[in-house]
UniProtKB/TrEMBL annotation:
Record's catalysed reaction(s): L-histidinol phosphate + 2-oxoglutarate = 3-(imidazol-4-yl)-2-oxopropyl phosphate + L-glutamate; L-histidinol + 2 NAD(+) + H2O = L-histidine + 2 NADH + 3 H(+)
Family per record: Belongs to the class-II pyridoxal-phosphate-dependent aminotransferase family. Histidinol-phosphate aminotransferase subfamily. Belongs to the histidinol dehydrogenase family.
Isomerase keyword on record: no
Chain positions recorded as Zn(2+) binding sites: Q257, H260, D358, H417
Alphabetical UniProt keywords: Amino-acid biosynthesis, Aminotransferase, Histidine biosynthesis, Metal-binding, NAD, Oxidoreductase, Pyridoxal phosphate, Transferase, Zinc
One Pfam family, short name: Aminotran_1_2
Organism: Hymenobacter artigasi
Gene: hisC
Protein name from the UniProt record: Multifunctional fusion protein
Annotated positions of the N6-(pyridoxal phosphate)lysine modification: K648
Gene Ontology molecular-function annotations: histidinol dehydrogenase activity
Residues where substrate binds: S235, Q257, H260, H325, D358, E412, H417
Cofactor: record remark: Binds 1 zinc ion per subunit.
Record keyword Mitochondrion present: no
Stretches assigned to the Aminotransferase class I/classII large domain: 486-784
């Protein structure tokens, strides 16, 4: 390393120059030529460049299914476990970066919001030349998956034999990424920017690399309209080491960056000449032990050890240099860290090597280099999303804000802008008559007048959102917190983070979501919202979920029945009967409980078009069915409410979290009458964790449906099972040839509990059997087989005695 003692500050700029800067014009020219070659030749150019630059002869650019299948067996179990732990830490840190949707009513009736939407197509560049960096795939793939990016493409250089490192393929499989392209260097970036037959063009390119990769990313951004994460080039570290530093630790940190590549740079600053001498001696000693010592030695040739006067000078130099990695090897690291203004990632104290950030602490190791830390942040969850703003004006809002916009637009000479407001204000005036108002209100006559007039309860967290150093507004007992979680504070009463995640998952806006303490709370509030006690009615379609009628009885509301047919479908005249009814609500359970079948789409659609009340489609079991959710029809039917739950497909019945989806206006009414803080903080935490793992839902669903199919096949062989009704849910309704209640009792005596539905309309002789685990399903079938055999013996004995 080159040693400099107390250099004048006028010389610092020269000392801060990166080694690759002098070659920048030649690099840029070569990269541009590669882009032109890929543009002209597509896949063929990539194959040629692989042979020329990677010395690899390829027959295909894409990693095959066979290569994926063979990868895991080539990765030692110890390494697999380490990778899984690193993935867990990275997921934890990046999940915590999620932001709830921002919603601000800037003035009455003017609602502005901002939510995060994933970048649709992302390309991840994973260096894989002399040292395949599978850790980079973790750092990029984890936030891409958490953000919900629909299409993820990985490019990584092939090895000389045309293969891709099995560890990289193992990580790709762990992250659910199935498109890996054997292309490295500038040609990979060109392919991601331009697109070829095998490589889809992407919206944003991520990943570190050498100076050619960095130049290629900058060219892609400047001339081809492709976003990039940052200019992330050759790796670098700067260590501030005072007299308290351990020279062996510092030397190891310097070498950990030098071994990345010959164009890496390491810098050590100290106010102790003794420490610098000891560090350099340690560098020489440890370098001789490294397998990649030749590479590290080349990097050290352009690296520097600099003696400065004090901590102030060292921090000033570091902030000007803006290192990718900054290590504060001092006893007062926290105090120094407060003064850091330019760095990609900072490592505090003597026991925090830069290597932990490279692999497994949880922070991201894709960081700005070459001084770009002055302007750029490292990769984070935000890197994979765009923030879109929304605004909605009510009539009140337009009337309050309209004149402001008209005046400003006219002052700028933009008459069309002003007219866009003026026309709407005139329309509001024209529709101010009762007839005009009724035509624009789909809930006219449906909401109880007392609810429309009421002032909702305002909790402390409604009046002051967020947190402050001292919170004394909500009568909480901050002395009472016990355990690892602090539950001394009231939870978010608006459940913003959950609604934001659900909105992305379901394709709705957060203000179209109501969260209840179980679906039962939504059922009860819908009855209370619309039905005046002792006066109004709801409609149910038995056999169906019992809580609809319970909610009506509790609120002194009449229940009208529209029974399902023998095959558990809506009767042919259902829409006609409902059109003639004055009921405020009709509850349609689909898939139905306890029968398990979907209601015919055409019949539900006809009701939605003709019924004047609210149509509630309860989709508690919809995740197990193949039909699309009615959530997709909310815009078409303003009086439609769709209920779902976390209890079934999500496997989280203990959370008691139900969801209602409807128009924003109707959800606002439900929020108006819901109890304050109706969803606990613990429930919110677990729900957010489940939403982060939403990609696992299809896997869980497939496993359960396989269990359902197996159970149907096995029950068909059980002598006492007369009929197994078709099911689109996670249960089966089964009619028995013998007394179903007796079967229920005998199952219970064997330690197996099912649901006796014999008293339900159309369900005589039926038990409802929930699909359980493989072991539970087997126990159930075995028990029913034994009960059947015992029944036959009993019948035979009775016959012989006669």
């Amino acid at each position: 390393m080159q040693l400099y003692s107390y250099p004048d500050s006028s010389l610092w700029a020269a000392l801060q120059q990166r080694p690759a800067a002098a070659e920048a014009p030649q690099v840029a020219a070569r990269v541009r030529a590669i882009f032109e070659q890929v543009r002209a030749g597509g896949d063929a150019a990539l194959l040629t460049l692989a042979a020329e630059l990677d010395k690899a002869t390829l027959t295909s650019l894409l990693v095959s299914d066979a290569e994926f299948a063979a990868a895991a067996a080539q990765v030692p179990a110890e390494l697999q476990a380490a990778i899984r732990q690193a993935k867990t830490n990275i997921e934890a840190f990046h999940t915590a970066q999620r932001e709830p949707e921002l919603r601000v009513e800037t003035m009455p009736g003017v609602m502005c919001s901002r939510r995060a939407v994933p970048v649709q197509r992302v390309g991840l560049y994973v260096p894989g030349g002399s040292a395949p960096l599978f850790s980079t795939l973790l750092m990029l793939g984890v936030p891409a998956r958490l953000a919900g990016c629909p299409e993820v493409v990985v490019c990584t250089p092939p090895q000389a034999d045309g293969s891709v490192s099995p560890v990289i393929l193992f990580v790709a499989q762990l992250l659910g990424i199935d498109k890996v392209v054997k292309a490295g260097g500038a040609q990979a970036v060109a392919a991601l920017a331009l697109g070829t037959a095998s490589v889809p063009a992407v919206d944003k390119i991520f990943g570190p690399g050498n100076r050619y990769v960095t130049a290629a990313k900058q060219l892609a951004a400047a001339e081809f309209g492709v976003a990039i994460d940052m200019p992330a080039g050759p790796s670098e570290v700067l260590v501030i080491a005072d007299a308290s530093a351990n020279p062996a630790f510092v030397a190891a940190d310097l070498l950990s960056q030098a071994e990345h590549g010959p164009d890496s740079q390491v810098v050590v600053l100290s106010d102790s000449s003794a420490v610098l001498e000891q560090v350099q001696a340690e560098v020489v000693r440890q370098l001789a032990l490294l397998p990649r010592r030749d590479v590290a030695a080349q990097a050290l040739a352009s690296s520097r050890a600099i003696l400065l006067a004090d901590a102030t000078s060292m921090l000033e130099f570091s902030n000007q240099y803006a290192p990718e990695h900054l290590i504060l090897a001092t006893d007062n690291a926290d105090a120094l860290a407060a003064q850091v203004t330019n760095a990609g990632s900072v490592f505090l104290g003597h026991l925090t090597p830069e290597a932990v950030g490279d692999y497994a602490s949880g922070t991201n190791h894709t960081l700005p280099t070459s001084g770009y830390a002055r302007q750029y942040s490292g990769v984070s969850l935000d890197s994979f999303v765009k923030k879109i703003t929304f605004q909605r004006l009510s009539a009140q809002g337009l009337q309050a804000l309209g004149s402001v916009v008209e005046i400003m637009a006219e002052a700028e000479g933009l008459a069309a802008h002003a007219r866009a407001v003026t026309l709407r204000l005139a329309s509001l005036d024209a529709n101010a008559s009762p007839a005009g108002a009724a035509a624009t209100k789909p809930y006219a006559g449906l909401i109880r007048p007392s609810v429309e007039r009421m002032q909702p309860y305002s909790s402390a967290r409604d009046e002051f959102e967020g947190m402050a150093p001292v919170m004394l507004d909500a009568n909480e007992n901050s002395l009472g917190s016990v355990g690892p979680d602090d539950f001394s504070r009231y939870p978010d009463p608006h459940q913003r983070a959950i609604k934001a995640d659900l909105a992305r998952l379901k394709g709705v806006m957060p203000n179209q979501i109501f969260l209840g303490n179980g679906s039962d709370e939504a059922i009860d509030l819908l009855v209370r919202l619309t039905c005046t006690p002792g006066q109004d009615a709801i409609v149910i379609c038995p056999p169906t979920y019992g809580m609809y009628e319970v909610a009506a009885n509790l609120n002194d509301v009449r229940v009208e029945r529209l029974p399902l047919t023998a095959d558990f479908q809506l009767p042919a005249d259902a829409a006609e009967k409902l059109a003639a009814s004055n009921a405020k609500l009709v509850f349609l359970c689909s898939p139905n409980n306890p029968t398990g079948n979907l209601l015919a789409q055409e019949a539900v659609e006809t009701i939605l078009r003709s019924f004047r009340g609210l149509v509630i489609v309860d989709e508690a079991y919809a995740d197990f069915a193949d039909a699309p959710s009615w959530i997709t029809r909310l815009a078409e039917f303003p009086r439609l409410v769709v209920m779902q739950t976390f209890s079934k497909a999500w496997g989280l019945a203990g959370l008691r979290l139900g969801v209602a989806y409807a128009s924003a206006e109707l959800i606002a009414f439900l929020d108006k009458i819901k109890p304050p803080y109706n969803i606990s903080a613990a429930t919110q935490q677990h729900a957010l964790a489940a939403l982060a793992a939403a990609p696992r839902l299809p896997e869980m669903r497939d496993e359960l449906l396989a269990g359902r199919s197996w159970l149907v096949a096995q029950l068909a062989e059980v002598a006492i099972a007369e009929h197994i009704f078709p099911s689109d849910a996670n249960f089966l309704l089964v009619r028995f040839t013998v007394d179903a209640t007796a079967v229920y009792d005998q199952l219970q005596s064997r330690g197996i509990v099912v649901r006796n539905r014999t008293t339900q309309p159309g369900c005589a002789g039926c038990l409802r059997l929930t699909v359980g685990t493989t072991a539970e399903n087997s126990q159930l079938v075995q028990a029913l087989t034994e009960i059947g055999a015992e029944t036959r013996v009993s019948i035979a004995a009775s016959a012989s005695s006669i």
